[in-house]
Design a protein that fits this description.
Layout lengths: L11 H18 L6 H5 L9 H21 L3 H4 L5 H4 L8 H19 L7 E2 L7 E2 H25 L10
Length: 166
């Protein structure tokens, strides 16, 4: 994985992927050093928890690189139909299981996008065909937002809030 700082002179796709990977890592790292109870702690009025954030971004990655790239439905992919549902934790969700699922999804996303150019259209988005560039920007916005949420939740738990360079 190349860092965003090291990708300055790389092609745009490599730059996007470097920024995405830094934010992905920050979200995975947000669960480091927390207990299962802390990861599930409801600290804000919404359904947002540290564990729920990582479960949610797993769904988001599947939407962009499963649904949009392949045209498969969310039901076929086995992911929630709505973003709100993706924050809901099952009794058997653990830090390890959610991190493993997200790591697997990240690898699937990388494979799905590997042979696609930034201006190539993704056929399976509900808005209609969109270029990969747009999907990367949307995902980066989503990951950055949730890194901020994770940072605040960690602070509320009395933990360090530094989630890397993201």
């Amino acid at each position: 994985m190349i860092s965003a700082d090291d990708a300055i002179h790389e092609p745009a796709k490599v730059q996007f992927e470097a920024f995405l990977d830094e934010h992905r890592k920050a979200l995975l790292d947000s669960l480091d050093g927390v207990t299962e109870e802390q990861a599930r702690a409801s600290l804000v009025p919404s359904r947002t928890t540290l564990l729920g954030l990582v479960k949610h971004v797993t769904m988001v990655e599947n939407v962009w690189f499963g649904e949009a790239v392949t045209g498969k439905s969310r039901a076929e992919l086995g992911i929630p139909l709505t973003a709100d549902e993706s924050f809901l934790l099952d009794d058997d969700d653990t830090i390890e299981s959610i991190q493993d699922a997200y790591r697997e999804t990240i690898e699937n996303s990388r494979r799905a996008a590997a042979s696609i150019g930034l201006d190539d259209l993704l056929p399976g988005n509900r808005r209609g065909p969109l270029p990969l560039r747009w999907a990367y920007m949307h995902l980066l916005r989503e990951l950055a937002q949730h890194c901020g949420h994770a940072d605040i939740l960690r602070e509320q738990l009395g933990l360090t809030s530094e989630l890397g360079d993201a």
